[in-house]
Design a protein that fits this description.
Blueprint lengths: L1 H13 L19 H18 L7 H21 L10 H15 L5 H11 L5
Helix pairs in contact: 2-3, 2-4, 3-4, 4-5
Amino acid sequence: MMLSCLFLFAIGLMAQTVDAVSEPSGYEMVFSTFAALVAIIPLAVEAIKKLAPSLGTNRLLTQIVSWLIGILITLIGWKLQLGFLTGLTWPIALAYGIGASLAANGIFDTGLLTWIIGLLSKKKE
């Protein structure tokens, strides 16, 4: 008897409806989290390397372009007020850009960078 009551309770939970939550789509998904921003930087650098094949042979130049692309993508997202960059000041957005560039190149861990930037910035209300 108790097992059938638990089964009927579970069916009632599955039948509930959920209000539609607007999820980010398209370019907004890149700025939904810091980790997503870090993941898009190597893809953007690879696209640029296909446009400029000489970039692929010089490792230092590729590294510099990767850092600049990370900062540029972050500042564009900040200017358009996308995702987690909404409401931040430009120095904090720049810090996120530098951190994302370093994390995308394997120099730092995303958790460590998020913690350091969190110490430097005020919490959003």
